[in-house]
Specification:
The chain is mainly α. The chain has one domain (7-366). It has helices at residues 14-30, 39-61, 66-92, 100-107, 117-128, 162-171, 173-191, 202-227, 232-254, 278-284, 294-299, 306-311, 320-333, 344-360; strands at 7-8, 273-274, 287-289, 339-341. The strands form two sheets. The protein has a two-stranded parallel sheet with strand order 1-2. The chain is globular, with a radius of gyration of 21 Å. The two termini are 40 Å apart. The mean pLDDT is 93.
Length: 368
C-alpha cells in the first residue's frame, strides 16, 4: 500500500513564506553567521551527553547509597531528554552541521535512549512537520483509542479523564520506544512504503532495530543489574524512573506546541487537498511559549520557539530567538496568527484545557 499524500493549495498567503525566507536569509547574510551550530551548541552537546553518561558511570563504579543511585537515574532521565531536545533533534533535521556525516552520527544518539533515528525522521520530519495536525497524516495526534488529540477522532467515555491520565502515559513514551513502539512503526511504515524515504531497505532497518535495542538494553539495564549496588528490582525501578522523567519532559515540551485551544486541525477533502498553504497551516497549528526564559530555552533546545522551528527546521535552534522577531512581524504583516504563551506553565495549562475539552465535547476547538 502506497503512502497517500495530501496536497496544500497555494493562495495569497503563500507570499508570506517566500517573503519570510527572504528576510531570514538576509539576516544570516548581513550578520555573516552560519545557520548551523556554533561554539555554544558544541558546548551544550558535550554537557547533555555528560548529563547522561556521567551519572551512569558513577552509579556503576562509585556510589552505593540507594537514594544517591536513584538520583543518578533521575539525572540520566533529564540527560536523555536533553540529548533528544538539543542534539539528536537538530541533527536529524540536518540543522546541526552542513556536514551530513556529522548530522548522521549525532542523529544516531537516539540509540543511546532506546529509540530509532529512521523511525524518528519518518514520524517527525516526513509526517509531523509536513502535515502538522492534519487528520490521518500527523501521527503525533493519532494515538487512538487511549487519547483524543483532535476533534476528528472518535470521542469515547474514558476520554473525559484524559486531562488527568495523559501525564502518566506521557511518562511511558521513551519506555515504549525502547521496547515495542519502533517495531510497530516498522511494520506500519513498511506497509506504507515510507521506509524507502530514508534510503534503507525494510529488512536492513529491522536488523538495525533489533541489534541496537539489544545493545541498548544490555548496556543500560544489563550493566546496572550486574554492577550497581541496588538489588535487581531497585535497578529495574531506577530504569523505569529514568524513562518516566525523560518521557514526561519530552511530552511536556512537544504537546503544548500543537494540542492547544488555538489549534485548527485541518482535514483534507476527498481529493486529498487542503484549502490552505503549508506555512499558514504551521502558524494556525503551532504555539510558542516562555520565549523570555533563556535558561529554559537553552535546555529544551529552543523548542519553545516551535513556530520558528516548524517554519525553518533546517536552522539550528540556537538562532531561533534572533529570527523570532522577523517571523512574528512578517506574520502580522500578512494577517497571520503568531500564537505564544508567556510562560511554560501557561502552555501546560492550555494543553490541559484542550485535553479536557477534547475529552468532553465533539468540536473542542469551537469552544472558548
Amino acid at each position: 500500500m502506497q503512502f497517500q499524500k495530501v496536497k496544500f493549495l497555494q493562495n495569497e498567503k503563500d507570499d508570506f513564506h517566500k517573503e519570510l525566507r527572504k528576510r531570514v536569509s538576509k539576516y544570516f547574510k548581513e550578520n555573516n553567521i552560519s545557520r548551523y551550530a556554533n561554539f555554544n551548541m558544541v558546548m551544550k552537546t558535550i554537557f547533555m551527553i555528560s548529563l547522561y553518561l556521567v551519572p551512569f558511570t558513577l552509579m556503576l563504579t562509585f556510589f552505593e547509597s540507594t537514594w544517591v543511585i536513584i538520583l543518578m537515574w533521575i539525572v540520566m532521565g533529564f540527560g536523555m531528554a536533553g540529548i533528544g531536545l538539543s542534539i539528536m533533534h537538530d541533527a536529524n533535521h540536518g540543522a546541526y552541521s552542513k556536514n551530513k556525516y556529522i548530522n548522521n552520527a549525532l542523529g544516531k544518539l537516539i540509540w543511546l535512549v532506546g529509540g530509532s533515528d529512521v523511525n524518528w525522521r519518518i514520524q517527525h520530519n516526513v509526517l509531523h512537520h509536513t502535515y502538522t495536525n492534519v487528520k490521518g497524516m500527523d501521527e503525533d495526534i493519532e494515538i487512538d483509542p487511549l487519547m483524543r488529540f483532535s476533534p476528528s477522532q472518535k470521542l469515547l467515555k474514558g476520554h473525559r479523564f484524559q486531562f488527568i491520565y495523559a501525564w502518566f502515559l506521557y511518562g511511558m513514551m521513551t519506555l515504549m520506544w525502547a521496547t515495542t513502539k519502533d517495531y510497530a512503526q516498522w511494520k506500519r511504515y513498511k506497509k506504507k512504503d515510507l521506509i524507502s524515504t530514508q534510503n534503507i531497505s525494510p529488512r536492513a532497518f529491522l536488523w538495525t532495530l533489533i541489534s541496537t535495542k539489544v545493545v541498548y538494553l544490555l548496556l543500560t539495564l544489563g550493566l546496572p543489574l550486574i554492577f550497581s549496588a541496588l538489588p535487581w528490582w531497585g535497578t529495574v525501578l531506577g530504569f523505569v524512573i529514568m524513562h518516566f522523567v525523560a518521557g514526561l519532559t519530552l511530552a511536556a515540551i512537544f504537546q503544548p506546541a500543537h494540542v492547544v485551544p488555538t489549534s485548527t486541525f485541518q482535514e483534507p477533502d476527498e481529493q486529498g487537498k487542503i484549502e490552505l498553504d503549508w506555512a499558514a497551516n504551521q502558524l494556525l497549528n503551532t504555539a510558542n511559549f516562555a520565549n523570555k526564559s533563556r535558561l529554559f530555552s537553552w535546555y529544551v533546545g529552543g523548542l519553545n520557539y516551535q513556530i520558528e522551528h516548524h517554519l525553518f527546521p533546517n536552522i539550528c535552534h540556537v538562532h531561533y530567538r534572533k529570527i523570532s522577531h522577523i517571523v512574528r512581524e512578517t506574520a502580522f504583516e500578512y494577517n497571520l496568527p503568531y500564537h505564544s504563551y508567556a510562560t511554560f506553565l501557561d502552555a501546560l495549562k492550555g494543553h490541559a484545557k484542550m485535553l479536557y475539552k477534547l475529552g468532553k465535547y465533539e468540536d473542542a476547538p469551537a469552544i472558548h
